[in-house]
C-alpha cells in the first residue's frame, strides 16, 4: 500500500482506504474548499505522483466537510494575486495573464493526465472550478442535494480552465452546455444525471463515497495495464475520427497485449479464480 507520508501537501488530505485505492480530499472546509494558487499547484503535484505510484490503481476525489466539493476559485485571493499585478502596457499585461491561465489549465489537466482512473464525488456547493476539475476526472458521482453552477459569467469572464472545452464532449448536448454556461444558473443533480454530467446520484455524501469506493476497488482489481490503456484510449479518441482512433488503438495494443496480465485474466475465468496482477 502507498505511504500517506509521501503525500503531505497543504490543503489536501491523501489517504489509502483500500488496497491500490487513493482518496484525495480537498481540505479547506472553512472556505468551502475554494481554491487559491498554492492549491492548484499542490493538486498537480499530488496527481503527478499518483500517476506513477505503483501502489495506486484508482483514485477518489472529494471535498472536506458537507457544505461543498468546492465553491470554485477564491475570488478575493485571486484579486490580490496575479489579477492585481500591473504591467507597463496592455500587451505585457495580457502576456502575463496568458501565461498564468496556461499554468492553471495545466494543473487541472494533470488530473486528466493521471494514468489512474479518477472518480469525483460532487457534493454540496459545486460551482465554477468544481466543474473544471470534475470534468477532468473519469467518473462523476453526486448527491441528491448537490448544487451545480458554471459561475464565471457572473464575475465577468468566460470559463477558461477547462469547462467550456470538456463539457460538450461529456454531455453531448451543445444546447444544454450553452444553457448552463451562459446563464450561470444553479442546477440540480437530477438535471446533471439527465444530461450525462454525472453517472450516479446518491442520497448523501456518505452513500456516494461508499459507491465510489466500491467502484474504485473494482477498478483496482483489474490489470493496471488494461485500465491505464482504456482511460488513455478513450481520452485520445474523443476528438479524433473513428479511423484515427482505431489505428492508434491498434498500435497501442500491439505493445500492451504482450503482458502476463492477459494470460492471467483469461485463465482466471477458466479456472474460476481471482487473478492477481503485478504492479505497473
Automatic annotation (TrEMBL):
Organism domain of life: Eukaryota
GO cellular component, one term: peroxisome
Chief localization: other
Species name: Amniculicola lignicola CBS 123094
Family: Belongs to the enoyl-CoA hydratase/isomerase family.
Xref: InterPro entries: ClpP/crotonase-like_dom_sf (IPR029045), Ech1-like (IPR045002), Enoyl-CoA_hydra/iso (IPR001753), Enoyl-CoA_hydra_C (IPR014748)
GO molecular function: delta(3,5)-delta(2,4)-dienoyl-CoA isomerase activity
Protein name in UniProt: ClpP/crotonase
Cellular localisation: Peroxisome
Keyword Isomerase assigned: yes
Keywords: Acetylation, Fatty acid metabolism, Isomerase, Lipid metabolism, Peroxisome, Virulence
Pathway(s) of this molecule: Mycotoxin biosynthesis; Lipid metabolism; fatty acid beta-oxidation
One GO biological process term: fatty acid beta-oxidation
Amino acid at each position: 500500500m502507498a505511504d500517506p507520508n509521501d503525500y503531505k501537501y497543504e490543503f489536501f488530505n491523501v489517504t489509502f482506504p483500500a488496497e491500490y485505492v487513493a482518496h484525495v480530499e480537498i481540505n479547506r472546509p472553512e472556505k468551502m474548499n475554494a481554491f487559491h494558487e498554492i492549491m492548484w499547484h499542490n493538486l498537480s503535484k499530488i496527481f503527478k505522483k499518483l500517476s506513477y505510484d505503483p501502489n495506486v490503481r484508482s483514485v477518489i476525489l472529494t471535498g472536506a466537510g458537507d457544505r461543498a466539493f468546492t465553491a470554485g476559485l477564491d475570488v478575493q485571493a485571486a484579486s490580490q494575486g496575479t489579477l492585481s499585478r500591473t504591467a507597463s502596457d496592455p500587451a505585457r499585461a495580457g502576456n502575463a495573464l496568458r501565461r498564468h491561465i496556461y499554468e492553471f489549465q495545466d494543473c487541472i489537466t494533470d488530473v486528466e493526465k493521471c494514468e489512474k482512473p479518477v472518480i469525483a464525488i460532487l457534493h454540496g456547493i459545486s460551482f465554477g472550478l468544481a466543474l473544471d476539475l470534475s470534468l477532468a476526472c473519469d467518473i462523476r458521482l453526486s448527491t441528491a442535494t448537490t448544487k451545480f453552477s458554471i459561475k464565471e459569467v457572473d464575475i465577468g469572464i468566460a470559463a477558461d480552465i477547462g469547462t467550456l472545452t470538456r463539457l460538450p464532449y461529456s454531455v453531448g448536448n451543445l444546447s444544454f452546455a450553452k444553457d448552463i454556461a451562459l446563464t450561470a444558473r444553479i442546477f440540480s443533480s437530477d438535471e446533471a444525471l439527465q444530461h450525462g454530467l454525472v453517472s450516479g446520484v446518491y442520497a448523501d455524501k456518505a452513500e456516494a463515497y461508499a459507491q465510489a469506493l466500491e467502484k474504485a476497488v473494482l477498478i483496482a482489481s483489474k490489470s493496471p495495464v488494461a485500465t491505464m490503456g482504456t482511460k488513455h484510449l478513450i481520452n485520445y479518441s474523443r476528438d479524433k475520427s473513428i479511423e484515427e482512433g482505431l489505428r492508434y488503438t491498434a498500435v497501442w495494443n500491439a505493445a500492451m497485449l504482450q503482458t502476463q496480465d492477459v494470460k492471467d485474466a483469461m485463465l482466471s475465468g477458466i479456472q474460476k479464480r481471482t487473478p492477481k496482477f503485478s504492479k505497473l
